[in-house]
Specification:
Layout (H helix, E strand, L loop, with lengths): L1 E4 L2 H17 L9 E4 L2 E6 L2 E6 L9 E4 L7 E2 L18 H4 L9 E5 L2 H10 L4 E6 L4 E6 L6 H11 L1
Parallel strand pairs: 1-2, 3-6, 5-7
Antiparallel strand pairs: 3-4, 7-9, 8-9
Amino acid sequence: LFIIENEKKFMNISRNRIKKFYKNMNIKKPIKINWHYSEVEMTLFNNKICTQYKKLPLCNPDFIYLDGPDQFNIKKDINGISVRHKDMAPMVCDILKFEYFYTPGTIIVCDGRSANAQFLKKNFQRKWRYSVDKKFKQHIFWLDDQILGDLNRKQLEFYKK
C-alpha cells in the first residue's frame, strides 16, 4: 500500500487510524504501508493548468483512490492562477502521466472531486470504462484495455473472483 499525502497532519491521522484498526481487529502481521510526503505545486499538463505532486513513489498501482490533495496547500502559480481559492478545485494530473504504465484492470476511484474526474476522463488516451456512484459521490474508472500477457490475465482472473 502506498499513501501519498501533502499534509503531515493528515498523514499522522491516517497512521493512527490504521494502527487503531489493526489493534481493534487483533491483526498481528499488518500489510506493509509505504508513506510518502510530497508538496504539491501548480503545473501544466497538455497546456492545461492543474496540480502535481513534486515527488512520487516508484510503483505501478492497480488501484488508485484519489482524495487529495488539500487545495489550499498548493505551491506556486501558473500565470497568476492557483487553486488556493474557494472558487477553484484541485486538479491532479499525476494519474495521467502514468497512464501507459497501468495494466488492464487498473481501477481508479475519485472520492468526490467531480471536476478532477472530468479532467481525467477528457485526457485519458486508453480505453477506460467510467461510472459514477451518485449515492457515495464517487467516480470510478476501470482500464478495459487489451491484456498485456499471462501475468495480467491472471491478475484479471483474480479480480473476477
